[in-house]
Amino acid sequence: MEKSKQQKNKVRFVVVREFSGEKSMRETFEQLIERQTCEHLEEWLEQREMAENAA
User: With 0-12 CB in 10 A as exposed, 13-18 as middle and 19+ as buried, what is 28?
Assistant: First the structure.
């Protein structure tokens, strides 16, 4: 039962954009993950700055 629970909790990626084949899937996913990480960091920094300014 533990294995089935672990499988359900795995992160899944859905590729919305068309894969052109210019890069490998690995490179494409690495770029996607890096871009999303940067976006989340920027959002977090903005929220943190607004919270500090409000305090």
Answer: middle
DSSP per-residue string spanning 19-54? --SSS-HHHHHHHHHHHHHHHHHHHHHHHHHHHHHH
Predicted TM-score of the model (pTM): 0.56
pLDDT tens-digit readout, 28-43? 889 889 999 999 999 9
> In whole angstroms, what is the distance from residue 44 CA to residue 23 CA?
30
What is the C-alpha separation between 7 and 45, in angstroms, rounded? 32
Measure the CA–CA gap between 9 and 42, rounded to whole angstroms. Answer: 26
